[in-house]
Specification:
CATH class of the largest domain in chain A: Mainly Alpha
Number of domains of chain A: 2
CATH superfamily of the largest domain in chain A: GntR ligand-binding domain-like
Keywords (chains A, B): DNA-binding, Transcription, Transcription regulation
InterPro entries (chains A, B): GntR_C (IPR011711), TF_FadR/GntR_C (IPR008920), Tscrpt_reg_HTH_GntR (IPR000524), WH-like_DNA-bd_sf (IPR036388), WH_DNA-bd_sf (IPR036390)
CATH architecture of the largest domain in chain A: Up-down Bundle
CATH topology of the largest domain in chain A: Four Helix Bundle (Hemerythrin (Met), subunit A)
Largest interface: A-B, 37 and 36 residues
Oligomer: homodimer
Domain HTH gntR-type (chains A, B): 19-86
Strand order of the largest sheet of chain A: 1-3-2
GO molecular function (chains A, B): DNA binding; DNA-binding transcription factor activity
Pfam families (chains A, B): FCD (PF07729), GntR (PF00392)
Distance between the termini of chain A: 27 Å
Shape of chain A: globular
DNA sequence: TTCAATAATACTGTATGCAGCATTTAGCGC
DNA sequence: GCGCTAAATGCTGCATACAGTATTATTGAA
């Protein structure tokens, strides 16, 4: 549930963080699944993966259990773990749920956010726009997600941020597929601009509406590339 | 994330289910935490607990990682796992989130539920009322939760049910504390009656309002017994 | 040639053992 | 008697080894 990425702070002289092996493995496996190196339906062979990562089976198994609880893999008795396959309905359900969460967050954020907080989001937005113009798609995606997570964080509700994070992670792999055309991309960017404006105006209903529409677009983008 | 309780079906001649050991341990530990046999802040000693449950450390460790992802325990590097302590704000956040989830579910449920579905909920409700009159508090609680889970299930969104289930589990321990007086209990029962009526009338806004108020009451009940 | 039954293989599930870190306690100096 | 240092203990983190189960291959007969 709680994200594991305990990235060491960028400062020098910061305390040396000794990340437990199973944590590191969780991160690696997550990335491998998200980036498609472990395709959906793939059975995870403990010996193989363990050898590839240079770790023993015990911490690897612990990591797998963690990911199972996160919903990225399924545990089949006596047959190990398989990378979860998401059908169209499941993805749609998750997007519906994310919408609900973000809209809840929007209301709270408009009540709670300081100008400073919103400035932080605005800054992410500006950097994202820069990536849009320079065509840096990867970085664009990352900032995009950071903005959404940021808005959720403004609601100041740890449980909410947790859940949202898990869902985002599950969908990351899917979003990799959704390569939108330039015109849709442009409209998405425009929507983001509106989002920030609504947030700065503390206009919760408007922000809510935009977020909702934004996610509907996301669904439109990915729905045709899905199985079942 | 996904509940592990793979209870064997009550039929005879049903396939014999061999539950993996780590699954069984997850359930046991969850119960121990919920029922307070493992108090918040307690460090989980692998050797000790393993001996007590009669299992070896490996599956136990796997179970702990699973519960960590569920948010019931914290993993402290080189110091093992400690049972998570929830402060007042965290509990309030979780209840706010549950409210948001249930209200989202309510809207969907009113759109989707068949008469048959609603009949199922009504039946649970009637059994709960029976427990209320007979004073069987434990069974009352269980049916109460089953009803809420049931309404969420009517929204036909697996991800939603998952999240709701996890939050319910986290709060179970807290709810154990909230021993309401008879008059509050009576009003809670009355609200439940209204809930079912609203559901049968497919009156989503009303159902939503009742659920919201219901959870506010729940918060009122528990908030004074919390640390921090 | 095809299907079935049996044996072999490979992988998961569980237990045990060892090394390193944290904490506590005992000993020593002041 | 009090504080500091150091050894000792206990626990976690990781690896390895063994047992049981599912799957595949092989051999036999129809």
């Amino acid at each position: 549930m709680t994200p594991v990425n305990a990235q060491p702070s960028p400062e020098h002289s910061a305390r040396i963080e000794r990340q437990p092996l199973h944590d590191a493995i969780v991160s690696r496996l997550r990335d491998m699944i998200i980036e498609g190196h472990l395709a959906p339906g793939t059975r995870i062979n403990e010996g193989q993966i363990g050898a590839a990562l240079g770790v023993s089976r015990t911490p690897l198994r612990e990591a797998i259990k963690y990911l199972a609880s996160e919903g990225l893999v399924d545990l089949v008795p006596s047959r190990g773990a398989v990378v979860k396959t998401f059908g169209a309905k499941e993805v749609r359900d998750m997007i519906d749920l994310i919408r609900s969460l973000e809209q809840f967050a929007a209301t709270r954020a408009c009540e709670l956010a300081t100008n400073n907080d919103i400035g932080g989001i605005r800054e992410l937005h500006d950097r994202m726009i820069a990536c849009y113009h320079s065509g840096d798609r990867m970085q664009y995606y990352k900032l995009n997600q950071a903005i959404h997570s940021g808005i959720v964080a403004l609601a100041d509700n740890a449980a909410l941020s947790d859940m949202h994070g898990v869902l985002q992670t599950r969908l990351k792999r899917i979003r990799f597929i959704g390569h939108e055309g330039p015109e849709k991309w442009a409209s998405a960017v425009a929507e983001h601009e509106e989002m920030i404006a609504a947030l700065e105006a503390r206009d919760a209903p408007r922000l809510s509406a935009i977020l909702g529409h934004h996610l509907t677009l996301a669904w439109e983008r990915v729905k045709d590339g899905l199985p079942a």
